[in-house]
Write a structure and sequence with these properties.
about 70% helix, dCTP_Pyrophosphatase, about 110 residues, single chain, mainly alpha
Length: about 110
């Protein structure tokens, strides 16, 4: 699926950007859903001894879908295209790879 097409689809279920505190709602929603992904893995470590064969991939996929929805709607709120974000991210990572700084730290490496 094309990322911008997904973004347009996600917007069909999003609140109006004119809604009071909508930007904050989107940021907190993204953090919350990302936390739910982390929580699933915390329980995997705690309860399932980090056995990769026991990861509930369907459950993780649902949570990642929620993360993706918030990313798409937040990006739109800020007038950003998911296609453009993805392309810029891949270009940044390719540059870091070429320069041998993938494993370093800092935003501007």
């Amino acid at each position: 699926m094309d990322l911008d097409a997904y973004q347009r689809g996600a917007l069909r279920t999003a609140a109006s950007r004119d809604k009071r505190n909508e930007l904050l709602h989107l940021v907190l929603g993204l953090v919350g859903e990302s936390g739910e992904v982390a929580e699933k893995f915390k329980k995997w470590v705690r309860d399932l001894d980090s056995d990769e064969s026991r990861i509930d991939r369907a459950d993780i996929a649902k949570e990642l879908g929620d993360v993706l929805w918030y990313v798409a709607v937040l990006a739109d709120y800020l007038d950003l295209s998911l296609n453009d974000i993805a392309a810029a991210n891949l270009a940044k990572l390719a540059s870091r790879h070429r320069r041998g700084v993938l494993g370093g730290s800092g935003d501007n490496r």
